[in-house]
Amino acid sequence: MSQTSVKAFQEISEQIPEKRRIVYTALKNNPNNSFYRIAFILGWNVNKVSNRFNELENAGLIEKTGEETRGKFTRDRFSIISDVEKIIEKQNKLYVFFVETKSQLEADYHRCETKEGKELLAKRIQYLKTKISNLKMHSV
Fold first, then answer.
1. DSSP per-residue string spanning 69-125
2. Fewer Cβ within 10 Å of end Cβ, the chain: N or C?
3. At residue 65, what are phi and psi to the nearest 5 degrees?
4. pTM
């Protein structure tokens, strides 16, 4: 790993919350692995690790690098993104996607005629606002 990559890893890992940082570091040390394998390595519940993977992927810090098949199940493998330019590019794409999706849902909310539909859309809009906020917090 280049000096730039090492510096980027240190800066990124300092910014993320503790549980995410632990998973991020475990994935850095064990690249191209599924969250099942990382959960085993950490001795954590699979759901706890999969949630951190989702958060890290939505922050543009990890990416899918392949798949593995265990019996009849296929699992995604992930690695951290060590190239700062690639992280920035991924974060920009995610930001645009989240903002556009939120705008579409807001338009749907205003056209919606049922209370239940509006409640569902409001929850989804809030979820996207949180994703956008988290992405801004972890932007490089």
1. EETTEEEEEEEE---HHHHHHHHHHHHHHHHHHHHHHHHHHHH---HHHHHHHHHHH
2. N
3. -120, 0
4. 0.80
